[in-house]
Amino acid sequence: MSATPHFLHVFPTFGFGGVPIRIANVVNHFGRRYRHTIVALDGVHDAQSRLRPELAVDLVDLRIRKQKRVETLLTFARTLRTTQPDLLLTYNWGSTEWALLNTVLRRGPHIHFESGFGPDESERQVPRRVLFRRVALWGASLVVVPSSTLFDLATNTWRLSRDRVAYIPNGVDCARFAAAPDAGAIPGFAKAPGETIVGTLAPLRAEKNLGRLLRAFASLPADPKLRCVIVGDGAERSRLQALAGELGIAGRTVFAGHIDAPERVLGLFDIFAISSDTEQMPNTILQAMAAGLAIAGVDVGDVKPMIAPDNRALIVTKSDERGFAAALRRLVDDPALRADLAAKNAAHVRARYDQSRMFAAYGELFDAALATRAGRAATVKQDWRPETSVRG
């Protein structure tokens, strides 16, 4: 192992999204303690803007053609051989072939991070993928999950050994998101005095089901001082804009596009809404709590248990669109309730999910994996387990 350990990160995409941005924050935190090579299998490296430019980070664009299976595996093997990482880190389903290859070739220690699923696994696990994960992740030093839902899935459905699955909740820079917002952060948007904003941050993808939010918002009173702001961009944008028009709320709905610094925006919201079909431990919920917002949403992944207890009554089953609309209506109609829940969420996130905890856990995790390269055993701490069941 070199004096500065070399990490090879393999992402399905390094575009803007929760996982790439979280890992960019991790890379920045550890600075020159490690050097990094980042592979984006789709050739997208937009999240590199979140990396400190003075750090030793190499970006690799392989432009993998998935239909060329043998060619793909040979490319993976060649990349592992030429980069010679001290630690391989893979992220989500799209990188599991690398996990399998490392298991077969035994190139070195490997950590796999599983943070969530796309729309094809929003309701149930795909059996062939379950089997592939069992085999591919069998040789991983550690598998890291941010939610108790995923911990149960990894240990019970994928049948991974509990002593090799680490539950490390995501963390947030609480001070950064508690700062005052920038009134001009959204081009063409200005919040008027007395206006109430229902807002969300999300890539505009099918699994985020922002249509659910638009339908719920459309059911609220048609008050000109009530607007919906959606921050994010993606393939669903034109469809969602058309839906807003069909629902008669286009004039009160703002599609802000991607904002590179969400902390400049969140404080403009009065209510944060999450409408996804699938999540595990969404960073946006942590950010919203740190910004001091009350939350209405749907009960997916760890959304409900991760927020302050008093706010949990406003998280409903995802099949209950009327309940979601009612939760939004309750917050719109009761400013005192919003303020109370906002304060409790802010205190809750500071106490449990400040990013300093996540960084410390990741540091121990990396050291444990690197120890295997030096011939020592990799172990996870016993407190790297969910404290209670996800429905507790």
Could you walk me through the main structural features you see in this protein, from its secondary elements to its overall organization?
- The protein is globular.
- The chain has two domains: 6-171 and 355-373, Rossmann fold, CATH 3.40.50; 174-352, Rossmann fold.
- By secondary structure, the chain is an alpha/beta fold.
- The chain has helices at 18-30, 69-83, 96-105, 127-136, 148-157, 174-178, 210-218, 237-246, 283-290, 303-306, 321-333, 335-352, 355-373; strands spanning 6-11, 35-40, 57-61, 87-91, 110-113, 142-145, 165-167, 196-201, 226-231, 253-257, 271-274, 294-298, 315-316.
Quickly describe the structure:
The protein has 392 residues and is of the alpha/beta class.
Task: Label this structure with key terms.
392 residues, alpha/beta, Rossmann fold, 2 domains, 6-stranded parallel beta sheet, 13 helices, 13 strands
Residue share in β-strands: 15-25%
Q: Please name the fourth-level CATH homologous superfamily of the largest domain.
A: Glycogen Phosphorylase B
| The CATH C-level class name of the largest domain | Alpha Beta
General shape: globular
Outline the secondary-structure elements.
Elements: E1 6-11, H1 18-30, E2 35-40, E3 57-61, H2 69-83, E4 87-91, H3 96-105, E5 110-113, H4 127-136, E6 142-145, H5 148-157, E7 165-167, H6 174-178, E8 196-201, H7 210-218, E9 226-231, H8 237-246, E10 253-257, E11 271-274, H9 283-290, E12 294-298, H10 303-306, E13 315-316, H11 321-333, H12 335-352, H13 355-373
Parallel strand pairs: 1-2, 1-4, 2-3, 4-5, 5-6, 6-7, 8-9, 8-11, 9-10, 11-12, 12-13
